[in-house]
Design a protein that fits this description.
Elements lengths: L14 H9 L8 E2 L2 H7 L2 E6 L9 H9 L4 H6 L1 E4 L3 H13 L3 E6 L4 H9 L3 E5 L3 H15 L2 E2 L6 H7 L1 H10 L4 E5 L4 H13 L4 E7 L4 H8 L21 H10 L2 E5 L1 H15 L5 H4 L3 H5 L8 E6 L7 H11 L1
Parallel strand pairs: 2-10, 3-4, 3-6, 4-5, 7-8, 7-10, 8-9
Antiparallel strand pairs: 1-2
Helix pairs in contact: 1-8, 3-5, 3-8, 5-6, 8-10, 9-10, 10-12
Length: about 325
Amino acid sequence: MTTPRNDPTEIPADLVSGAARRLAHYAHLTPVLTSHTLDAKCGGKIFFKCENFQRVGAFKFRGAMNAVLQLTDAEKAQGVITHSSGNHAQALALAGQLLGIPVCVVMPSNAPEVKRAATAGYGARIVSCEPTLAAREAAVALESAKHGYVLIHPFDDWRVIGGQGTAAWELLDQAGHLDIIITPCGGGGLLSGTALAAHTKSPHTRVIGAEPERADDARRSLEAGTILPSGDPKTIADGLRTSLGQRSFHVIQRHVDQIVTATEAEIIDALRFVTERMKILIEPSCAVPVAPILTGKLDVHGKRVGVILSGGNLDLQPLFQALSERWL
């Protein structure tokens, strides 16, 4: 696998299995949890792959670390750059810190403060921009021209996609046979990586993506047969506001069976369910694949279903502010 980022339609061989071997000494083997309450409600058996317990609190560490581990010495010396609203930013910042590589991150002005602070804490240089894809890409181009940075795209990079697929690769080992795996879908890195992992390891497993109803560009793109950008969608699921990349769309067209959506109210209900009943902290983006199971939009009766809980970087400031205002 010598040119993992070049041809967007040529999937490198051993993409996910190679990433799994590469990440063995860096990424956490995250736990798989179940919920008797949810199983009783939906009639299936649900297995939650808890990437909220991954390094930096999100699956994104897998893709970022897999990418930087494949840089040449010359590229490492140049430093790397990306654009991200938060989780990939933190992931690349930590990967750079671990390997001694300079990192620059372009972050939109509306990125959650908890993610911005964590990115800075890992030592990355942060450049702010307007919250549009065009502004992100323009800022990356400008900084790259100035400093010679190497781009590690948050999702449209085979190395990143391969790394993200290792969460599902592990889940299939941990949970055994699964009829369905469902993941959130923003730029499509996790969904396409999951699809490649399942296609290789468990070809009879159906792979389903989940999106906010307000950011349903993957669903619309699949129907249209071409990428339809999401624009600037207003959704609580901040990690799913981006549009699909060419590489992820190429994989999704071939190996993803269905895209389901959730309303903002359904996302919040799912977030509350996981917090109250499973006693773990997740961010709104990973409540999105839980929502259609809770509502019954996705029929999982009698099925064994894997859900990738993609991250736990929830901004808790409003909660603690409300508590302070009430009790202090």
